[in-house]
Amino acid sequence: MVPMETSVIHSATSAGLANCTGNGDPMVLMASYSTSGAAVAMQTLLRRNVSVSGETDLAAAAALSLLSGEHGPVERWPFYTYLCGAMFCLLMSSGCHLLACHSEHASYVLLRLDYAGITGLIVTSFYPLVYYTFLCDPFSRTLYLGSITVFGAAAVAVSLLPVFEAPELRWARAALFVCMGASGLVPIVHKMLVFGARPEAVVTTGYEVAMGVLYLAGVLVYATRVPERWMPGRFDLVGHSHQLFHALVIAGAYAHYHAGLVYLSWRDMDKC
């Protein structure tokens, strides 16, 4: 489907009104509307039935324009999925910090939910990027979305293992989440190879790079326990690594939120 230009539609509509008044030619308008199968079929019918009035011609063309779906907003669910993933991540983290002291069992369960929340944020971050970039490429879209979803499910399964919370595996936990996030480089590079000349692709990639840098900084702070490792006791209440980790994650999620807004604007104006 080729998006229709507003100026062309307006000029074609004016020409159609002029020609359909008096000479009975119903074909003027249809040339400027969608080239979908429905439009072609209607065009053929109108060619054969020259008695159709100009008013009916206009109504048919307008109906085809609406039915084609070219002017409606693009699907919002990938963007909303990302927002839900971000909120779920922060909610699980808040619940873990607030209630983990209740009991050993509560701590065990809430830590798993915290890991699941981090995984959910990473996985859903892919959805706007992949869905809107490859809106017109179903194979790539399905491949990337399917891969990251399976990867995320595997990460959640691994995080359920009791050994996963061992202090000596702190780096392993960090590495797992870094690898998940780094896999996003593949669709981003693919996007730039295909759409690198478009300003929307450049802007969204900038936001995604900022998101990745902020997430990576957060993981490094989390894994290295900076700055409290340098001055033990000085950051017990304010400024310790876990607080910095959360602040960096929120900043990264906010950067990706802006990328999502650009994707929506892009695909609302330019569908397949």
Automatic annotation (TrEMBL):
A biological process from GO: response to sucrose
InterPro entries: AdipoR/HlyIII-related (IPR004254)
Main location: membrane
Positions bound to Zn(2+): 97, 242, 246
Tree of life domain: Eukaryota
Alphabetically ordered keywords of this record: Membrane, Metal-binding, Transmembrane, Transmembrane helix, Zinc
Cellular localisation: Membrane
A Pfam family per the record: HlyIII
Membrane protein topology class: Multi-pass membrane protein
Keyword Kinase found: no
GO cellular component terms listed in the entry, alphabetical order: membrane
TM stretches of this protein: 79-101, 113-131, 143-164, 171-189, 201-223, 244-266
Keyword Kinase (UniProt): no
Gene Ontology MF, one: metal ion binding
Designated name of the protein: Uncharacterized protein
Lineage: Eukaryota, Viridiplantae, Streptophyta, Embryophyta, Tracheophyta
